[in-house]
Specification:
This protein has about 325 residues and is of the alpha/beta class. It has one domain: Metal-dependent hydrolases (TIM Barrel). It has 12 helices and 9 strands. Strands 1, 2, 3, 4, 5 and 6 form a 6-stranded parallel sheet that branches.
Length: about 325
Amino acid sequence: MVEANTHLIKAKQIHQKAIVFDGHCDTILKVMNHKRTLEKKSTTGHLDIPRMKEGGIDVQFFAVFIEDIYKPDRSLKRTLQLIDCFYREIENNQDDISLVTNYNQIKEANRAGKIAAILSIEGGEALEGDLGVLRVLYRLGVRLLTLTWNQRNQIADGIGESRTGSGLTEFGLKVIDEMNDLRMLIDVSHLSETGFWDVIKRSKTPIVASHSNCYALCPHLRNLKDEQIKVLADKGGVIGITFVPNFLTQEKRKTTVKDVVKHIDYLVEKVGVDCVGLGSDFDGTGGLPLGLEGVDKIPNLTEELLDRGYKEKDIKKILGENFLRVFKEVIG
């Protein structure tokens, strides 16, 4: 019993010292649809400020997700509505959370005891085929663009259109170039495999898969194959392991925190610890693994990593240092 308590204390100490950086959540859509606010601890959904504090979250990407009914001709308006919702939540909770757009602002927010919130967009249909829109969204604080969701858009095909074998469109190539010039993070989660390889060839900077897992462990279209994992890691990027049960295993059973760590183990074994991060997809999925039912449960992941024999320095890389490194390198 004493040994178990000592182990738990060590895990808590590591977690408290670590920068915990989550690469993806869909909470803003839930707030927009009047399900709840960031301010109040909720008994529904997965993420709010009180639970983020309990989970030790230091940096959080908040994704703007455009529902199908707004595609394609109302995507930009819906994007702006969601960004407005995000800004209002930040303004209402200024003592606890800050919008950040660069590395120094992350450090400043954390030093002030605040959560650093980064704005991202899930789905390039938000651009409506216009690079000027991309530049304006950048000025509004957007620092990551997930190029597609599952469908085809003006940039590329999502994983739901993989049959055609199409890669980036001509507009898509221009988007990659413009994002490189603006210093935005390019996210290949949801992107078709052919599109992925086009991004790898085109981008001059590291890329991320903000919320994707390993195809070899769970052969779902949303997961990355070994060749994709290797080249993304070689390019200096990061893969945010997601907690979505369907992307963890195809076995008909309840998933647990151990299933998440199996994907982390696999990445570490294949390409090393430097490409591994967290991409929960909180509020973007229904069920979650036992032990990771909400953002307040993230410390359970640290304990499991310690149980698996991970050293403190590697646990800290997985929890956030890797995402922070790529953010600093690409965005500055």
